[in-house]
Every structure is written in structure tokens, then in C-alpha cells.
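A quick word before the example. In earlier lectures we treated sequence and structure as two separate objects. From today on, think of them as two lines of the same record. Here is histidine kinase written that way.
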Amino acid sequence: MNLVDRAFGASEFSDAEEPGIFTWELATDKVYADSALANLFGLDPEQTLTGLPVIRYLDRIHPDDKPSVAKAISESVITGNPYRCDYRVFDRSGQIVAVAALGRCFRDEDGNPSQYAGIVFPTNDHVQQDELSAHCSAALKIARSSGLQATADALEAILKELAKPMPSDVAQVH
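And the structure line, produced from the sequence above:
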């Protein structure tokens, strides 16, 4: 792929793998993002281009990861230090996508935080677990349609267990 293709929209990434960029205007609490970030976070691309409140993005973060992500972003805004965080988000289909985010808060001439910019990209850390979950979900549908309630109950328990964060899966702030 040539440089022009890369600069003007062609990508070597699939839609699910494409990194997304954003800017957050702190005074208005609006995050402006490209369609790649919209896809990662399961949001409407037209709305992300015209700006959404930051809470709309935070709502798409896995509940177990949300506190550490919010803390890392807050610390970056307060200190001006770069932000780097690994966490999980829910895409449009409700699937969990492991991502890494990098960003930085910029200040106005008076030293007040004003703009925050960054990039979020999928890390594929959960590919095997997601595949296992997908197979278990398919087996659950078959068990239910076949009237195998004990098997369906067991598969539901497995899916609940797979949804729990594993020690290596929890959000890590760097």
C-alpha cells in the first residue's frame, strides 16, 4: 500500500482492527472521533464526527476497567503527562474488544487544560477467549433449541465465567 492510500483512507487494517483517533474539547465536554473509533466503541460514526459527550465513550468501557481508565485520564488532564492505558470496550454487537489508548492533554496560554487528543487501537488480547465465548454461545443456542436444559445451564455458567476478567485481563495503566 502506498503513502497516498494510507493518508487518504485506504487501510491495511480490517474495520475491526483499525486504530481510531480523537480530540476532546474539555470546555464543551465533546469528543470528536473518526469512524474507526466509532466502530471500536460501538457508536454512530456520524455522531462521533460531530462530537459526543465523553460519558458516551466511558459507557462503552467494560465496567471492571472503567475506574482505572477514568483515573488515568483524570491524572493525565491534571498533570499534563502522557496517558497510556489498556482496557476493554464493547463494540456495536456487544463483543468485547481489547484496546490500548494513548493520549495527552494540552493546555491553553494560561496553563489550563483545554484539549485532549489521542489514539485507540485494538490489541487482540482477547481473540482466543472471544472465540471460545462465540463457540459456547453457539452451543448454548443449540442446547436451548434441542431442549437440553442442563447443558444450556452449564453453558450459561461457562459464558458468565468467561465474561469475568482474568488477572492478566484487568486494565493496566502504564
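Notice the following. The radius of gyration is 19 Å. We will return to this example when we discuss secondary structure assignment.
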